[in-house]
Write a structure and sequence with these properties.
A four-stranded mixed beta sheet has the order 3-4-6-5. The N and C termini lie far apart (about 60 Å). The chain is built from 24 helices and six strands. Helix 2 packs across helix 3 and helix 6 runs antiparallel to helix 16. It is mainly alpha-helical. It is globular, with a radius of gyration of 25 Å. Helix content is about 60%, strand content about 5%.
């Protein structure tokens, strides 16, 4: 049964490939539905490949190279050896698939034992759970408020959607490995030799450190789990065995704290934000999780049985206590403990397996259908027009340095990854004043700004180049900007304008 689940996971991972095979143009590396985040990853990969340490390329203001991230560093190394930026991103797809499968499978086996069917059902839900509220909100044309909120809940808890590249889901895969390793440390008796014990300490510490470093929300959840476990165990001395793994897991947190106190983009994005923790979308998205509630009660629980019950509560604590960054990531990986608890509860209540299977299909199939629909509908956003790809390659090779001003899609957010330059508009989270800049850039390239406003925008953008995409009704900017433009190159339907150097050096 586990082999069948693995085959299903592999086939699911290939779905975007089959959908994208019919696309036209130059593939831009986006293998999932989240174009913005995957473009961000490619921008960071290019930064890592050129400098090792990453600066924010989604803003034109100077930013120091401070951030070291393992998966981006490895992808950046692959790019520096000659791999395309797209291949450097996608190399994590098979690695993430294997890591998630091994971690989830080992944890399900530990919780559900030799009940093959129960393990298969838990794995099915763990890998493919998507709250039905998300597709229903979309199909019923609910308000944008509900559609966005249920989409956030649905996609954050959908491991099948993590397999699009970038390696961020490796942090989720490390969680069960950490939890299984600390169990072995805590339950070890005097017969475990010192070398074996050290291996478990190292394994738990490495898994926790990677979880925190790659995706800190999952690392924070692990720290809360350990703290709760120690309190549940009444601070028994044996929990001192977790001191080193706990410290190693927390170590990257000190690094992130230091980054947040530098004069860099990491300081800016670490400030409290205005995103909402609560809303009708949250309750609608969480209703199906009530199926896991019968699995929570229990007596004489062993260590791992305690952990699987602490895990969802720990994630909720991380979610509720954070008021900065994209705290919705605290939901990542929650489908694993909740799937296990659901199966435990169904067995306890003696729910017929056919009913359990029906419930599993109800919380997986609709969301997967919606996901495939989104891939089909957004297929054009996975490709550059040939002229757009040529324009990016031209700017990449041009000897003059400097940022690029382009419309957001498809070129603006692609500039960092495909040219190694800063962009005036790019990722919604990493571009300052994003919601003001995006319409300004669109208005410029559509010729809807006055001459004075257009010149002011170009000067303030620090742009060395303007890149016009293949969208219809793009204006010829030369008459509008006059002497600000020194050279113009046409690449089919795309156009690159060089801005006079004195303008590009103007302060923002």
């Amino acid at each position: 049964m586990e082999a069948a689940i693995f085959v299903a996971l592999v086939l699911w991972t290939l779905v975007p490939l089959f959908i994208l095979l019919g696309g036209r143009g130059v593939f831009n590396g986006v293998y999932g539905i989240d174009v913005a985040d995957l473009m961000q990853y490619m921008g960071f990969i290019r930064e890592a490949g050129e400098h090792v340490l990453i600066a924010n390329p989604f803003n034109v203001a100077p930013d120091p190279h401070l951030f070291l991230q393992p998966t981006f560093a490895l992808s950046g190394f692959a790019w520096s050896l000659g791999a395309s930026i797209q291949a450097s991103l996608l190399l994590w797809v098979p690695i993430t698939l294997v890591a998630l499968f091994l971690g989830f499978t080992a944890y399900v086996r530990r919780q559900l034992g030799r009940d093959t069917l129960a393990c298969a059902m838990a794995l099915l839900i763990a890998f493919f759970y998507v709250t039905p509220a998300m597709p229903l909100a979309s199909w019923l044309h609910a308000s944008q408020y509900l559609q966005f909120g249920t989409k956030v809940v649905g996609l954050e808890m959908f491991p099948g959607g993590y397999l699009s590249g970038g390696g961020s889901a490796i942090g989720v895969a490390m969680m069960p490995l950490f939890l299984l390793s600390i169990e072995r440390l805590l339950t070890a008796d005097s017969r475990m030799d010192r070398t074996t014990r050290r291996w478990y300490v190292a394994g738990a510490g490495a898994a926790g450190m990677l979880a925190m470093w790659i995706h800190p929300w999952q690392g924070l959840t692990l720290l809360v789990i350990v703290a709760a476990l120690v309190a549940w165990g009444r601070f028994d001395r044996r929990y001192l065995r977790l001191a080193v793994p706990f410290a190693l897991t927390a170590a990257p947190l000190a690094y992130y704290f230091a980054l947040s106190h530098t004069h860099s983009s990491w300081m800016v994005i670490s400030r409290p934000n205005n995103y909402s923790h609560f809303g009708l979308w949250l309750f609608l998205g969480m209703i199906p999780l009530a199926a896991a509630l019968p699995g929570f009660p229990g007596r004489n629980l062993d260590l791992q049985q305690r952990i699987v019950r602490i895990w969802p509560i720990a994630a909720l604590i991380v979610y509720l206590t954070m008021n900065r960054t994209w705290f919705y990531h605290a939901f990542d990986g929650l489908s694993l403990p909740l799937a296990i608890l659901a199966v435990i509860g169904w067995r306890r209540l003696r729910i017929p397996r056919v009913v359990g299977a029906g419930a599993a299909l109800a919380v997986t199939i609709p969301g997967m259908v919606w996901f495939v629909q989104q891939l089909v509908q957004t297929q054009p956003s996975h490709f550059f027009r040939p002229g757009e790809a040529q324009a990016l390659a031209f700017i990449d090779a041009f000897p003059r340095s400097g940022p690029v001003l382009a419309p957001l899609q498809p070129l603006g957010q692609a500039v960092p990854g495909f040219t190694g330059r800063q962009t005036f508009v790019g990722h919604y989270y990493w571009t300052p004043d994003y919601y003001r800049r995006v319409p300004l850039a669109e208005a410029l390239f559509d010729g809807k700004l006055s001459r004075s406003a257009a010149i002011s925008l170009v000067r303030s953008s620090r742009a060395a180049f303007l890149a016009s995409d293949c969208q219809p009704r793009r204006a010829n900017l030369t008459p509008l900007l006059g002497k600000l433009i020194t050279h113009v190159w046409h690449f089919g339907c795309a156009t690159v304008y060089e801005v006079a150097p004195s303008s590009a050096s103007a302060a923002t």
